[in-house]
Design brief:
Chain B: This is Eukaryotic translation initiation factor 3 subunit F. Chain B: Component of the eukaryotic translation initiation factor 3 (eIF-3) complex. The complex is a heterodimer of chains A (about 325) and B (about 290). Chain A is of the alpha/beta class and about 325 residues long. Helix content of chain A is about 55%, strand content about 15%. An eight-stranded mixed sheet of chain A has the order 7-6-5-4-2-3-1-8. In chain A, helix 4 links the parallel strand 4 and strand 5. Chain B is built from eight helices and twelve strands. In chain B, the strands form two sheets. In chain B, strands 1, 2, 3, 4, 7, 8, 9, 10 and 11 form a nine-stranded mixed sheet that branches. Chain B has a two-stranded antiparallel sheet with strand order 5-6. In chain B, a hairpin with a 4-residue loop joins strand 5 and strand 6. Classes of the chains: A alpha/beta (about 325), B alpha/beta (about 290).
Chain lengths: ~325, ~290
């Protein structure tokens, strides 16, 4: 049922000429709560789930979601997994409408992997606009709602489809590591009934637990973990750099060899001309030194760079908070 | 009533003493959402509650889903197959959540509810019935939980009486963080760390102001003094650690320097990344 609906939507969409770019993701409070609950229950394991919603002009409205069960053995449960999805979609589809995107939990922002990109590309085949929502449960301990909506940028997608990540192509498109993922601002909407209920049920104290969490002075464990991840990523990055260096070195070596061979050929040809014979061709494709060395893909290094930037941002954010706290403490003590 | 046998109206106490129930806000959200999206002819929404029973007797309600039903004056029909399908699907994700009861919107308990309660008690020994008043009939949204108790006259079952049990709204910290956002009808962007910090400090300031005002009032005699509160305040003020100024300054400066070091490190890392990227892509292959 879902497939036929998707097809008719595609047909309808094919008649549209201009697609307005995605500007905002509008999420219902219900979806946020569900994501938080699911990610928190299973942390530290990473979990994923499916989002359901509507695509309206430049706004993507997410109205419901359901979690994926954790797979232990992939072979047996693959068929089950597909069944589960269809079942849930059918059950929820009885009451709500369509479209599918995805959410994922992460730990301290280490979500940028090749698998994520592959999943994105898979979804992109069927649905024109898909967004991934990343939630970080470990940052909630710091009192921050770490929810982000990500989408692959179009230029990156084209490159990925062509499966070429060489330096020239990237320079052509002017694509840097920042351009892989685009972050889309999130707007939260709630029905009036829910707001009424929540205002009703709220406890009377103006200060809640999250305030106590925010005001806690010790942010050391969190920072330590961030730094650990940062160091690991740096190691990975240096491995990638070494790969590149090796490639460049072997490339230049090969070119030197080619030049030498060419010189020899030319000298030979001169001799032959002097001797009155036909000159040999200046190229010899069967010679192994002419074999082009494949350039290593830059995708990994881009992803790692993105990760590192993420960690740095997080460190900056937490440091900012810590500064505030320290100065607060200082003024308290002075009084 | 026959004069001869003196039959006694028995109130059987529930088999497992269910003292109270705790509900997570997600459940209420779910219910409201289903109510808002219900098909036009239905007046109320009925669904299943999932959760677990804690060892001390409280029931923890963690999740819920709506079950399509049709209702007329005499009978109520539930889509049992849908109910089972959803249950199986939910349990695949979270096998610890089991059926603990059912909910319906609307204030009191109606006649049809007894039948549904009966149906659910076949699945679970003592189902909880949750009513969520979406019509705000009393001027406020009330959420009530009931347990059914069988009234028996001698050996005959007469009716089921719904007894109310205390209900508690419990919230996990992570959910509290987003709570402000969830209260309004539309929020334009999620607050980032510094803004959250601002809000928190504002709240702390408000608290301190309140305490200040209270102490002033007591001193001036406007409010009768309460010894307990006075003792609390004294304890709080005394719990600020007494450090000599040089020791405190040293402590603060050390922490400040640590944070600055980390900030510096992250800035260097980013510069390094910028450089590396330029080198990588700018290299010309001859």
């Amino acid at each position: 049922m879902a497939n036929s609906m998707a097809k008719s939507f595609l047909q309808a969409a094919a008649t549209e000429e201009v697609v307005s770019p995605l500007r905002v993701v509008q999420i219902e409070g219900l979806v946020i709560l569900k994501i938080i609950k699911h990610c928190k229950e299973f942390s530290p394991a990473l979990v994923t789930g499916q989002l359901l919603g509507l695509d309206v002009g430049s706004v993507l409205e997410v109205t419901n979601c359901f979690p994926f069960p954790i797979r232990e053995e992939d072979e047996e449960i693959e068929a089950d997994g597909a069944n589960y999805q269809l079942e849930m979609m059918r059950c929820l589809g009885v009451v709500f409408p369509w479209h599918i995107f995805r959410y994922q939990s992460t730990i301290l922002g280490s979500y940028q992997t090749v698998e994520l990109i592959e999943t994105f590309m898979n979804y992109q085949e069927n649905i024109r606009r898909c967004v991934c929502i990343i939630y970080d449960p470990s940052r909630s301990n710091q009192g921050v709602l770490a929810l982000k909506a990500l989408k692959l940028s179009d230029s990156f997608m084209e490159l990925y489809r062509a499966n070429s990540f060489t330096g020239e192509k990237l320079r052509e498109k002017n694509l840097s590591w920042m351009d892989i993922f685009e972050e889309i601002p999130i707007k939260v909407s709630n029905s009036a009934l829910i707001s009424a209920f929540m205002t009703e049920l709220e406890s009377d104290t103006p200060v809640t637990q999250c305030d106590y969490d925010r005001l806690q002075l010790s942010s050391n464990p969190y920072m330590e973990r961030n730094m650990e991840f940062l160091i690991e990523c740096m190691d990975d990055l240096s491995v990638e750099q070494q790969k590149f260096q090796f490639y460049y070195r072997s490339l230049s070596r090969q070119q030197a060899q080619q030049q030498a061979w060419l010189q020899k050929r030319r000298a030979d040809n001169m001799q032959r001309k002097a001797a009155g014979e036909d000159p040999l061709p200046e190229e010899d494709p069967s010679n192994p030194i002419f074999k082009p060395i494949p350039e290593p893909s830059r995708l990994e290094s881009f992803l790692i760079t993105n990760q590192i930037a993420n960690y740095c941002n997080q460190i900056n954010g937490v440091s900012g908070q810590s500064f505030n706290r320290l100065y607060l403490m200082k003024s308290l003590h002075d009084n | 009533m026959a004069a001869g046998d003196r039959t006694v109206l028995q109130f059987n106490s529930p088999s497992s003493a269910i003292l109270s129930a705790k509900v997570h806000p997600l459940v209420i959200f779910n219910i409201c959402d289903c109510y808002v999206r219900r098909p036009d002819q239905a007046e109320r929404v009925i669904g299943t509650l999932l959760g677990s029973v804690l060892p001390d007797g409280t029931v923890d309600i963690r999740n819920s889903y709506a079950v399509p039903h049709t209702e007329s004056a005499e009978q109520v029909a539930l889509d049992i197959e849908y109910h089972h399908n959803m249950l199986v699907s939910h349990q695949k994700v979270n096998p610890k959540e089991v059926i603990v009861g059912w909910y319906s919107t609307g204030l009191g308990v109606t006649g049809g509810s007894a039948l549904i309660q009966d149906f659910y008690s076949r699945e679970v020994p003592n189902p909880i019935h949750l009513t969520v008043d979406t019509g705000f009939r009393n001027g406020e949204g009330t959420v009530k939980a009931f347990v059914s108790v069988n009234l028996a006259l001698g050996d005959r079952q007469l009716a089921a009486q719904f007894q109310e049990i205390p209900l508690d709204l419990c919230m996990v910290e992570a959910e509290r963080v987003g709570f402000d956002i969830l209260k309004k009808t539309a929020v334009d962007k999620l607050p980032n760390d510094l803004e959250g910090m601002e809000v928190t400090m504002g709240r702390l300031l408000a608290l301190i102001d309140d305490v200040y005002k209270y102490v002033d009032d007591v001193v001036e005699g406007r409010v009768p003094a309460d010894n307990n509160i006075g003792r609390f305040i004294a304890e709080t003020v005394a719990s600020l650690p007494k450090l000599s100024p040089p020791a405190f300054d040293k402590l603060m400066n050390d922490s400040l320097q640590d944070q600055l070091l980390l900030l510096y490190l992250s800035s260097i890392a980013r510069t390094q990344l910028g450089l590396a990227e330029k080198l990588n892509t700018a290299a010309q292959i001859l």
